[in-house]
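Retro notes - structure team

What went well: the batch runner handled both jobs without manual restarts.
What didn't: labels got mixed up in the shared folder, which is why I'm recording both outputs here explicitly, each with its sequence directly above its tokens.

Job 1
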Amino acid sequence: MLKIAWSPIYAHPLPPGHRFPMEKYDLLPEQLLYEGTIAKENLFEPPKLIERWIINTHDPSYFKKLKDLQLSKSEIRKTGFPVNELLVKREIHIMSGSVQACLYALEYGIAFNIAGGTHHAFTDRGEGFCLLNDIAISANYLLENNLANKILVIDLDVHQGNGTAEIFKERGEVFTFSMHGAHNYPLHKEKSDLDIPLPDGTGDEAYMGHLRKHLEPLFIDYAPDFIIYQCGVDILATDKLGRLNISMHGCRERDKIVLESAREKNIPIMCCMGGGYSEKINHIIEAHANTYRLAQDIFF
């Protein structure tokens, strides 16, 4: 059964005019339910996450400042969010959703968090709409509990997974692979284990060529036993922040390559949703929904 982390708090309202589309976290499950891709039993609300698993990844002093709403104005500005108590609660809920989705992936082969993919959060700070890093927290949870030994992070959001790269820069148990816009945010890129920077305007054919060329050798050379997939849809040509030229079909093909590879190799995969900033919300929802449709077709 496809299990998907979702909570009403995911769609926490932001001030009018804020460019982060929180409404997608309600609209996406509604669309998937409406079309019959999933049923209500596929959705689960994440349980409370013990703080130990957060400070296992993040600096305890940073997490305390975040919880106590003591971040400086500069630190808040870098997150891109108007940090408040409910937003912090939402972020912790998202961390739990990804951890629990990893556990379901071990059971069913694949699982999702409708939120997550917060790859810009560093050990000791938040950036780029990310306060905590669910990818890193989930990977460390699996390693600490001996549920995985070698984790491959496949980050195909248009923005480099800089926080994840920083957190795991000296950890051989986690391999960070980021394919992203070369000239996009963040201005200063961290060093992932494998970075594939793409020029502005990269289209479907070139994108899939890069992905196929670099992904298959990772399965052979690194031999992961778990995958965390950051599948942001801000690679779309319609994305306001993306700068690539990927069609809706191309975005679906990207996901198909990753999910079929995981299924064929029998490697559990947890998918977290990442970014998407197209002007029309239906483009964001359709691109995200394709990932779930593919999961049902390929795994179940």
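Job 2
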Amino acid sequence: MRKLIEFVGSTVVAIGLLTGLASAADEARVMQEKQAAEIVDTSAYKKEGPYKIGVAAGYMGNSWVVFTLQHIKYEASLHDDITEVLVTDAAFNPTKQVADIEDLISKGVDLILYWPVDDKAIEGALKKATDKGIPTINTGGGFVNSPSVTASVFIDQWNLGEMVARRLFQDMGGKGKIFAMLPIAGTTAAVDQLAALKAVMEEYPDIELLSAEYGDWNRAKAKQITENLLQKYPEIDGVFSPAGQMSIGVAEAFDEAGRLSEVIMSPGDEYNGWLKWVRTNNQGGAVTFPTRVGQEALRLGMRILRGENVRRGQKVPSEYISPGAAGVYAETDRPDDWWASELPEAWKPQ
């Protein structure tokens, strides 16, 4: 009887903790949506052209950001009052990204678009920009609420993570052991995707999360991490991996270990290597991670430079594409490091 009481008591505590975590996640999401809806007074940034645009890339060794940058450059070509687009590459080094932002300020840019290596590390440098009347726009990834960030043009990582998790759990029949392959640790994208995954898990008590890993949106790193997990866990039934670049690395590791038939892959995104895999295996599908976020960010930046009030957060929505439909988007004559996009042919990377 005592053991039963202890068991029931511990179960109640566990349920209480999980409910508390879910409640905290819901509150964080509501707060994020409220912050994103705030109207920003941009009168302090209003100025006449011509304009010089700065792009502080946290990294360029990633095909998604290559396409995102091409969207920025294409949009710039449509504005006669934009005379130059200056691009820096921090190569995953937050200290260099700080220096890059300061360098763009010294070169007199009128607007800074950026994607971070570490949001906190570059906060001070971004504040230097806004203090000098240079608006800053977080481009892609997740929403950032900070006095140093004028606005975010973002992909809703909560919504994306929920769509990916629900589809995965449905395909798994609502039970089994999974691991998560997330982007760069500490970024809004990684934090929100993991929170969304755990929130959906509350609806699926028979899903067990073995491990949450960080593959840095890198195919080779995701593959290596998965190889280690395959050695550690004799049973893995599913993988939560919203990024196709990492998903294909994960799938390769399972295939080479002779265990691909044991696992269900979640939807990835529009990474061409992933779309090819979906077409061949008729599994997973895609939840879009649109590269046109770069174009939308520059459009918003031009509105700010004209002194128009804007929302602090502008979403670029994700959509679920079934395996059958996703396979149609695969471009078999293109390399894996390619992205389905609406860029004019002349502006696609060469």
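One thing worth noting from job 2: The two ends are 72 Å apart (CA to CA).
We'll revisit the folder naming next retro.
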